[in-house]
Amino acid sequence: MVLNHGKKIKRILIITISFLFFLNLNATAAQAVGQKASGTLTNVLNTSSASEKLLPAAWMIIPFLLLLLMIATGPIFYKHFWEKHYPKVSILLGAIVVVYYVFILNNYQSLVHALAEYISFIALLSSLFVASGGILIKVNKKSTPFVNVVFLFAGAVISNIIGTTGASMLLIRPFIRMNRNRIKPYHIIFFIFIVSNVGGALTPIGDPPLFLGFLSGVPFFWVIKNVWFIWLPAVLLILLAFYLFDINNKRAEEKGIEYSGKIQFKGTRNLIFLAIIILAVFIDPVVISWIPSLSPLPFGLREIIMFAVVFLSYRYADNEILKDNEFDFEPIKEVAYLFLGIFATMVPALQLIAEEAHLLGSKLNAGVFYWATGGLSAALDNTPTYINFLSAAMGKYGLDVANKAHVIQFVSIDDVYLQAISVAAVFFGSLSYIGNGPNFMVKSISERAGIEMPSFFSYIIKYSLVILVPIFTVIWLVFFYGKG
């Protein structure tokens, strides 16, 4: 079964890379691309600049909204159709946007940038997914609310070292195993809240928008210095909510079972692969000047290294570990198809939002930056959302986000705007399944482990609105209300 899924994931990657390469050749022929679309700050800014001249029609956000609606309703109302045809639906809706940009706007640059972002996104997720799948962690300790709280808090800290995606892929299976006799959907929901999102707000490694800020000129340790006192109460409040849920999860006493309290760890070789992935994040010409650019290819050495890790970590993984982890490629396949459509269809929405952010920048205060960045990060890619609102905030001081010296100057002038944008871009990704890449993957892994996860709308209504929004409102009132 694993081998069959391996062939499927290879086909997905081949189709994606071929499509990217074909699109990039057309863009080059049209002289629409002046430089490599590698997912760096320069490309984001070029896309924003192009969007000011070639704004899409407002109705072009319909494919994006329709895709979100089908993601939300498909598994509930037409499950058989959705499970069989969701790849076709995602690609078809994405193709509508592609055709519009190519033949109506004659804008290749935005598409090349969006799809290059996608290949960078899927390279990171797939490499972390496969590398972590070859690691087996078993916690031989009785599951209690307190033990779970400690586990989730440790996961929040780890997410700043190997990223929210890395921590999610590494820890979700042992978390499920540890709670196997009392596992409920809320366990997975709070895991997504804490490990897959809020936890990773302390370092540029933790979440992509913060890394983009680092590339822009925000000092590496600025985040932890200026966000830890917001991060800590947010994590503790969410953990408190989880504890209240978990203490009411009663179960029959397990007779005859003894716990050693030991943690079993297998697959240490794959730790090397995880380290390679994290180091590869920094292999970018913007970070290290001597790193060669592969322009006009829509990817760089970073993505090549990550895809190599996908192959090598799977090729040399211990089959017993893969079996114990119930590893297959279905979760990454689902993410690959759905986010291919999401990345394509959200291009018009991002460009329209970028235009509005720049037009209204002088009228925005810290509270507006917080809610606007957060609200959009819950449904759109939080990385371009972060950079667009950072650009708007810097515009209030007459500074240019494309200039590193200006970014450094902005950081020294004002903390509150950047705090609001940074915190919101990371925290609010937990509001929906599509808010952050690992959310969907954790959901898929959990479902394949037999856990009946809530639907798209149930996740939001029963958990996000009830638990997260009040906590995020407290964060706003304490740290950002009336400032700026």
Reconstruct the topology from this structure:
Layout: H1 2-29, H2 41-53, H3 62-77, H4 79-104, H5 109-133, E1 136-139, H6 145-178, H7 185-194, H8 208-216, H9 222-246, E2 263-266, H10 269-280, H11 301-315, H12 319-324, H13 330-345, H14 347-359, H15 366-377, H16 382-395, H17 404-413, H18 416-427, H19 437-448, H20 456-479
Antiparallel strand pairs: 1-2
Commentary on this structure:
- The chain is mostly helical and about 475 residues long.
- It has one domain.
- It is about 70% helix and about 0% strand.
- The chain is built from 20 helices and 2 strands.
- The protein has helices at about 1-30, 40-55, 60-75, 80-105, 110-135, 145-180, 185-195, 210-215, 220-245, 270-280, 300-315, 320-325, 330-345, 345-360, 365-375, 380-395, 405-415, 415-425, 435-450, 455-480, and strands spanning about 135-140, 265.
- It has a two-stranded antiparallel ribbon.
- α5 (about 110-135) runs parallel beside α11 (about 300-315) and α6 (about 145-180) packs across α7.
- Mean pLDDT is about 85; it is low at about 10-40 and about 45-50.
